[in-house]
Amino acid sequence: MNIENLTEDQKKKLKTRILKWREDPFLFCKEVLGIDTHWDKQIEVMRSVAKHKKVTVRSGHDIGKSFVAADIVLWFLQCFPDSVVITTAPTWRQVEKVLWGEIRSHFLRSKIPLSGNMLETELKIGPKWYAMGFSSDAQDAFQGFHAKHVLIVADEASGIPDDTLDQIDTLLANEFTRLLYIGNPVRSTGR
User: Fold this and answer.
1) What is the pLDDT of residues 67-124, one digit of tens each?
2) Beta strands in the chain (DSSP E)
3) Please, which residues bridge with residue 88 across strands?
């Protein structure tokens, strides 16, 4: 959120709200993104990511997993300064059109203007403060991301090879990391 044109009193109030939003992503969605149409399981997912290091969501098609993942990406990036968000999916189409399509849509329709420069699969606030997406076929792409706050979102996680998921797990060593796996449980083996 752009704070450049705010008074000192407004900045102080915003900092207080950000502390509340960090605890409750659903509140962030309502107050900042202007989205209050989440159903109870989506709210549960958001609040679980706020509280737990690793969250897995397995469910059927077309219930809003990518929708809520987009909200979580924007919540994390806007509420935790100098954070890094990495999103992935098995195919580039899923990254660009599905998850990042939702992220771009929510960013552009936000009730309160959000910080950052939105590109196709990247939202950049600063040199060490950004979100980006890439397909999971490039295992080495998951190395070298270090920040105090890191979020990883794996969309259609059941289609991501286990060795790539192992690489993603290496990012959990950061101080405050959250990992969200979402997808349809279509495989009977693997992670």
Assistant:
1) 999 999 999 999 999 999 999 998 889 999 999 999 999 999 999 989 999 999 999 9
2) 54-58, 84-89, 117-118, 122-126, 129-135, 149-154, 176-183
3) 134, 154
